[in-house]
Amino acid sequence: MYVLCVMPRQEVSAWRPLVAGVVEVFHAHFTEHAYPMHVHDAWTLLIVDDGAVRYDLDRHERGTPNDTVSLLPPQVPHNGSPATPHGFHKRVLYLDMTQLDESFIGPAVDGPDVADPVLRERVGQLHTALANRGDEFEAESRLAFISERLREHLRPRSAVRSAGPDRRVAQTLRELLDERLLEVITLEEAAAVVHAHPTHLVRAFSAAFGIAPHQYVTSRRVDLARRLLLDGQPPIEVATAVGFYDQSHLTRHFKRVVGITPGQYARTGTGS
User: Using an 8 Å Cβ cutoff, are 170 and 137 in contact?
Assistant: First the structure.
């Protein structure tokens, strides 16, 4: 990850996450910078948290008003500049063609700005997951639903609705997650083992058990951590022992689930 101060009051941060399908994450605060016409070889999924951006895409003037989600297709020239005096804060995901193939380029040119509060919330949640090392499985799950929802917006008539939860798929996935609880497993790997599309995998599991697969894994790991902490093991050892990336990764999720840090929990001497 790098952080670059471009000009006074203008900042950029960018990194390449360990999540298949995401080429780059890009966050920026620009007050004056104007992009010239340019192209990308990846899809540009853009949300603006403050201010607004105006841009030209395929000779049409566009913008990012009212908390829209903007999807700019690859190989189509566009520019961009602040549409408000104080500039803008934006968060961008560059997605490769595994998420949206070239058949969606035309529809995206015709309607790049999507007014969808649910989609916007999910994109924000994905950015949060991508910023936390160790949350790749969660990020993969969120990306799968975002890509599916984008396809529905671009081709709503061809969107396929699930007939209902697939209990067999859900049960098989749960057995796999239990078996590999302490290991790193990607959504693509799980889909290959269960023989189901990644999006269907997450939807079936969530419908059957009332919890997303990444939440299930995290809660199981936190539960194991509680036992080891009460046995007297230090948090730094417990973290890797139960499958978290490091101690800060454990602490973040442990506090969210239990309400206190692992160190505080260990000092209580009892579990709840």
Answer: no
